[in-house]
Design brief:
Elements (H helix, E strand, L loop, with lengths): L3 E5 L4 H12 L3 E8 L22 H9 L2 E6 L1 H9 L12 H19 L3 E3 L13 H10 L6 E2 L11 H4 L17 H9 L18 H14 L6 H6 L4 E6 L2 E5 L3 H8 L6 E4 L8 E5 L5 H13 L9 E7 L2 E7 L4 H7 L2
Parallel strand pairs: 1-2, 1-4, 2-3, 4-5
Antiparallel strand pairs: 6-7, 7-9, 8-9, 8-10, 10-11
Helix pairs in contact: 4-5
The structure holds iron/sulfur cluster.
The site of iron/sulfur cluster has 9 residues, from helix 4.
Amino acid sequence: MRVKALGMISGGLDSTLATKILVDMGIEVEGINFSTGFCVTEHSRNFKDEKKPLRPNEALRLANELRFKLHLIDVSKDYLPVVITPKYGYGANLNPCVDCRIFMFKRMRKLMDEFGAQFMFTGEVLGQRPMSQHRQALKTIERDSGLEGLVLRPLSAALLDPTVPEVKGWVDRSRLLALAGRSRKPQMALAKETGLEDYPQPAGGCCYLTDPQYTARLQDFFDHNGKANLTNEDVILLKVGRHFRFSENIKVIVGRNERENNFLKVYENGRHVFRVPEWPSAHMLAEVKGALSPDEVRRLASIAARYSDAEDKGRVAVEHLNGESAEILEVSSIEEAALEAWRI
Ligand code: SF4
């Protein structure tokens, strides 16, 4: 019988090594790369550094290198409730790692049937992540997703109970590894040994939900808009630009470079727009609940003036657009201290 394994592939070093171990054993591998909406590669952090290229999808790169089929699956809509109401709570930031794994493993269970795979595998390492990769969490995740005995973790398998593919002899347990803990040095040494050179830097961070700055913005959203109102559009916009909480009802997003300015222009609908037409300037959006007072409009315009090349030129003409209405205001740049107090 030809054995097929379905892998959860991020394309990072750990899933690269796990896949290589199974491919070298002659197991047929297919890969799944889930897109949650919170993955760094979807809207790379490199957004803020225009000189760096956007990060590629590493899973696709790996599938190409090791020659296996990879399925890119967008789960972002169904994933929002996992972030909003996680049964097992959050980690150090707003990362609901245990619920996230259960959500993905349940999907994997269905996909195994669809693709005719006998078991699934991951690049997880025992004890590497404090919330989801300790022994008890691994068991809870398997149990709650209906996958007991069917999840192989080739990098730590020798330290874990034998799984169905090992017991049935589909996989040679003696060729599985006994890695544990947070250090990535053994994986890097192994990559060198096996001639793997092209992999992303380990522990580079692949999920915005573990990023303190991103999760501060997400928490601000929860506090001011309510968790239940989070949409996929909000998830995207929280990744881009500088964010300022101006008041209970007003949040401001300011692009940091041309890449972000162009991106923000796509999201003008339903938001107030401020820009400085006569000078190079950042694109600025204001998310407003209710109506703006004339004083609030002027204060917001002064933020747009601050992020223009005319910031030190005294009075600056700032354009304010709100749906069909447009006006020009003459304002000075906002004071730095006020701005810093609003920064999220
Ligand atoms: S770090 Fe992010 S993607 Fe990884 S398990 Fe936690 S919530 Fe899920």
